[in-house]
Design brief:
alpha/beta; Nucleotidyltransferase, domain 5; 2 domains; 13 helices; about 30% helix
């Protein structure tokens, strides 16, 4: 398809690839040093990296010609060979045209191009193997899985010293490793992002079986939605434990409460109104049913939201914290529906002390989450002695604590059995 080198060949290539590539698969504009492409499984990360390398090669007199040396860095040498070079979206699978087609020389760990340019394979298992080499560009694949990420990255940075503007692309599914977070925070990093579902060529069976099963879970958010899921070691809850308490549906429940943690004010800068519903079964297990927390609502709007959820779940009562608004909180709810029973609760201890007994219920295996509650679980796994790492008010968590405290840590009201 492309038999000539130089600007014309590059223009032809770019118009061809750009005509059907997604925007996130194209190298960003600007004077960046690192292009970080965070993508879910099957989102097209490998193809984007391979096409970027091809653009350098086809530039001819441009960047690739400055020594014509490119580094290919993967978790293992086998990964470089089987994914980045020979894989379905690897370098050898691209349409180079007869005159520009490269070849893989396994003994040398090198992809050789007809114009003399080379792309050499390196493994994160052996960072020192990068010592002594120099490159004009690098493609780093699945960096979050590298065995020695920091040492490998450091050695690569020393080797990127050819040409006028050495650059590198990182294609990876995110994991909360320090190196990836540093790269993301670097002002010289340009970022693109793609979820698995963005790829229209994936098999329907895969989407139904994998995406349908894991969507919204911690693993799904990381591997499918390419979210960087942080882990806080001092948090009251850990993500792995929350995954183990997830169920698809709740059994018939004896009692359901909806807890409201109202904001102190309304407007653009107000906290969210925490709205969490939970129920308790005849087996004594608590089930977290819904998180309807919303921000920037007027009192009338959050009250209506609470009342609507109360009726939808056929709840027994609304439990409302009144530290900020006193009797006004109950009055606002009654304006939305005067028939709804409201129980006022007041906080006399700090948020962490109130949350500890509820966290103990989780540790005892007495709480289940019905379906996925990603935003609530984010707050739970980011809540430690100092509160949330962002400094924000843990409104969802507060509502959860009030709901489960009312259900399982105080005397319950008269039960009535219903199904959810």
């Amino acid at each position: 398809m492309l038999k000539k080198k130089g600007p014309r060949a590059l223009r032809d290539y770019e118009s061809s690839w750009a005509s059907w590539a997604r925007a996130d698969q194209l190298a960003p504009e600007g004077d960046w040093t690192t292009w970080l492409f965070l993508g879910g499984r099957g989102a097209g990360k490998t193809r984007a990296g391979a096409e970027w390398v091809r653009s350098l090669i086809l530039a001819g007199a441009g960047e690739a010609a400055s020594g014509g040396r490119i580094a290919l860095v993967g978790e293992t040498l086998a990964d470089v060979r089987d994914v980045m070079v020979n894989g379905e979206s690897g370098l050898l699978r691209l349409d180079w045209g007869q005159d520009a087609r490269p070849r893989w020389i396994g003994a040398k760990r090198v992809v050789e191009f007809p114009d003399g340019a080379t792309a050499m394979a390196f493994s994160s298992e052996d960072p020192e193997s990068l010592r002594g080499h120099q490159f004009v560009a690098a493609w780093c694949d699945e960096l979050a899985k590298w065995k020695y990420p920091d040492a490998t990255w450091d050695m690569l940075q020393f080797a990127l010293r050819l040409g006028k503007r050495p650059r590198q692309v990182v294609t990876t599914t995110p994991r909360p490793i320090p190196l990836l977070k540093r790269i993301m925070a670097d002002p010289n990093t340009a970022k693109t992002h793609a979820r698995t579902a963005a790829n229209p060529y994936l098999a329907d069976a895969f989407l139904e079986r994998v995406v349908g099963r894991y969507q919204g879970t911690r693993l799904g958010r990381q591997e499918l939605d390419a979210e960087l899921i942080e882990e806080r070691t001092d948090a009251l809850w850990q993500r792995r434990a929350l995954e183990q308490c997830r169920v698809d549906a709740a059994p018939p429940l004896k009692r359901i409460v909806l807890a409201v943690d109202p904001p102190a004010s309304s407007g653009a800068r107000s906290d969210s109104c925490g709205l969490v519903a939970a129920g308790i079964g005849s087996d004594g297990i608590g089930y977290v049913l819904a998180d309807a927390t919303a921000g920037r609502l007027t009192p009338a709007r959050w009250a209506k939201r609470a009342v609507d959820l109360y009726h939808r779940l056929e709840a027994d009562r609304i439990v409302a914290e009144v530290n900020q608004g006193g009797d006004m909180v109950e009055a606002v709810i009654r304006q939305a529906d005067a028939s709804v029973p409201v129980e006022q609760v007041r906080a006399y201890r700090g948020k962490y002390l109130r949350a500890e007994p509820v966290a103990a219920l989780y540790e005892q295996g007495r709480i289940k989450h019905v379906g996925t509650l990603p935003e609530l679980e984010d707050e739970m796994c980011d809540f430690g002695l100092g509160g949330l790492s962002s400094g924000r008010s843990p409104d969802r968590l507060d509502a959860l604590v009030w709901a489960l405290t009312a259900l399982m840590l105080t005397k319950a009201g008269k039960p009535r059995v219903r199904g959810i």
